[in-house]
Design a protein that fits this description.
Layout lengths: L1 H11 L4 H7 L6 H14 L13 H8 L13
Helix pairs in contact: 1-2, 1-3
């Protein structure tokens, strides 16, 4: 429930709603999973219409095989 549900759903969003629901402890009950996920998101002020809304741009770049450019240390910003 809550932020733990959102974290679990986000981590498994690329695998689809059926797999995400199962891995988040909802078994085959995807309807309840989606309903409780939307409620959890609303509680923190995030609007989602479907599970894929939780996939960040950074996750998509990694999936497509792009590169991530970042400083080696915080002092090199």
């Amino acid at each position: 429930m809550g932020i733990e549900l959102i974290d679990c759903a986000k981590a498994n969003a690329k695998q689809g709603v059926t797999v995400a629901a199962e891995l988040c402890g909802y078994g085959e009950n995807t309807a309840t999973f989606q309903q409780e996920l939307q409620q959890a998101c609303q509680q923190i002020g995030v609007e989602i219409s479907e599970l894929s809304d939780l996939i960040t741009e950074q996750q998509m770049v990694r999936q497509r095989g792009g590169i991530e450019i970042a400083p080696e240390t915080p002092s090199q910003l």
